[in-house]
Hints:
Blueprint: H1 2-14, H2 19-24, H3 44-47, E1 48-51, H4 55-60, E2 65-70, H5 76-87, E3 93-99, E4 103-106, E5 109-112, E6 116-122
Antiparallel strand pairs: 1-2, 2-6, 3-6, 4-5
Amino acid sequence: MALLKKKTEEKKENAKPSMKDLYSGKESGSETKGEQKERVYGNAYKVLVKPLITEKASILNSENKYFFEVAKNANKIEIAKAIKEVYGIKPVSVNIIRVSGKKVAQGKIGGKRKDWKKAIVTLPEGQAIKVYEGV
């Protein structure tokens, strides 16, 4: 039995590092249970397209409600996780609205704008998001 343990230990020591180890910058087995990954939900910037800055949105900011344009296939859970990752605040509630694109005409030629999805995110009392930084 002891001989079997020695052989498995030798294999672990002589084993090549896996591709995950090479790209993560850490050796296998060096992670501790207390460490957490920095990015829990890597698709946050695909889910949140942009914050909507409108007159109505600025009025509702006083009630801790923020408007975002989100991906058409995103659901409430994905949006909440994305807000948590990007801004570090867990939302109290998320409401979603599907907005259909308007019919438009350029002279004789008719067309339609894209359909899109809007999310209204309510944050806890005392928490805020700085959405006007780049405006």
